[in-house]
Amino acid sequence: MLLNIDLEKLIRLRHWLHAHPEVSRHEHKTAKAVLKFLNENARPDEIVPLDGTGFAAVYAGATAGKTVMIRCELDALPIHEINDDIPYRSLYDGVAHKCGHDGHMTILAGLAQQLVERPAMGRVVLLFQPDEETGTGASQCCAHKNFEKIRPDLAFALHNLPGYPAGEIVCKAGTFASEVRYVAIEFSGKEAHSAQPETGVSPALALAELTLKAQAIQALHDRTEAYALVVPVYSQMGVQASGVYPANGELHFTLRSADAAVLETMWQELSDCARSIAKLHGLDVEFEIKEHFAASVNSQLGFDMIKQVSAQLGYSFTTIDHAFRWGEDFGEITKDYSGAMFGLGSGLSKPALHNPDYDFPDEILGCGIQMFTALIKLALKQESAGEQPTAVPDDV
Fold first, then answer.
1. What is the pLDDT of residues 303-345, one digit of tens each?
2. Residues 6 or more apart in contact with residue 381 via CB below 8 angstroms
3. Are 219 and 131 found together in one domain?
4. Using an 8 Å Cβ cutoff, are 128 and 105 in contact?
5. What does the pLDDT look like over 115-126, one tens digit per residue?
6. Is residue 390 part of a domain?
7. Are residues 130 and 242 in the same domain?
């Protein structure tokens, strides 16, 4: 497929985004830079403001038809980059694009260049979504009053995947990325002098007991064919003073499963254990769900379209057996709208996602643009919004 893009300009955009990362809920310069690029190189018919820094760029066809949404993420991670060998390394200590969202944004910018020549029928919505890393961006964009203007018939997204050959397409029907819940459990008792611990109530034993209970809960639900995880990720108790017997302690856990019901059961069991332990030790206990990622579930139609398009384009295609363990808030979109997410291989030897030395490879930008361009053509080829796409168009 011939692409109507300026690849050098896209690479310059990607490098600028990489050098100027912003964490979730703070993607102001990022959104401004992407909007500037779109207005200068592929002006949309409409910009629809959404939650926070999020927005959608609308490219309307000559006649009414289906709406196809393609989504990317704006935010970076609170990780310090160690790629001192690249001239576009992050300018901000402790913030970097280590999930490849700079590449995802650039792919949609290239897709916008393809859409300068509008589709004959229907419309394409490019969703530039904030706050993916916190699990809140997709849900809040969907809940925004302006989302009603851009409700899709089909929605697609991709995620770059280190550990797979560059340009390989990875997908599955059903759950593609797991249900994830990040929770905090806080015990509180009574502070005292450490020389008289019997006059206070400490959370020390409660924290230890709950950590062991978490292991037991995971073991109860974890299976070879369907994994389940209850992972302690943070612990804090007391102050660094020899004379203080602490009153407060906190544990954070990440719970993961491809099955939302299993995750809910594990959380119920963990919270019930925390209540029982608190009662046993005379402590109060409070709970907070800090982040939640709904499972990203691919419809059969979305999966079939991705598989057909990858074959037409000549890309290697891998169907995975099990959902990825990481969470992706695109699941908030696939809860209500048919569609799918696919993986785009970024290289067998690439560092893993969220590693401090990861850098999205420019050589796979064209692969992502081609995939989305072909998916759009396939989805909008049908004359009636009620028809289902059945084949990849011959001109893809």
1. 999 999 999 999 999 999 999 999 999 999 999 999 999 999 9
2. 389, 393
3. no
4. yes
5. 999 999 999 999
6. no
7. no
